[in-house]
């Protein structure tokens, strides 16, 4: 872990990732245990009952990989694919946009945001440009005169 990251930023990242991990553990475990609410919800999405445990296993596997620091990027990639499938299922069912279809997008943002805030390597791969201060850009001031 890089020590240059502020405590506030690190805790924000942990909360974001923790929220995703807890939700996905709950979702995966309820599917593996084939709880009625999970089975009914999955069947409403158009999947057969015998798919529920497989979906739960894949959700748990992806979540565990995401929770481990050494494999968190791989887990985030797998979770993103998982969320993409959920989005496609909601679109196919013509579910409401903000409450159903975009819900997995919100989780994907939390998933990647949590890694982005705590892992400098990801910031180097996907830099988000920040506005330069005018004082840093002296050439602009001289050219405008």
Condensed summary:
The chain is mainly α.
What does this structure look like?
The chain has 145 residues and is an all-alpha fold. 73% of the residues lie in helices and 0% in strands. Helix 1 packs antiparallel against helix 3, helix 3 packs antiparallel against helix 4 and helix 4 runs antiparallel to helix 6.
Q: What value does the average pLDDT take? A: 88
Helices, by number, come to 8
Radius of gyration: 20 Å
Q: Which consecutive residue ranges, at least 5 long each, have pLDDT under 50?
A: none
Give me the secondary-structure category.
mainly alpha
Secondary structure: helix percent: over 70%
- Residue fraction in strands: under 5%
The coarse silhouette is globular
How many strand segments?
0
Distance from N terminus to C terminus (CA atoms, Å) equals 47 Å
Compressed to H and E, one letter per element, the order equals: HHHHHHHH
Q: Biggest sheet, in brief?
A: none
Write the layout of secondary structure elements.
Layout: H1 7-32, H2 36-44, H3 52-67, H4 72-92, H5 97-101, H6 103-118, H7 120-125, H8 138-144
Task: For this entry, give a set of tags.
145 residues; single chain; mainly alpha
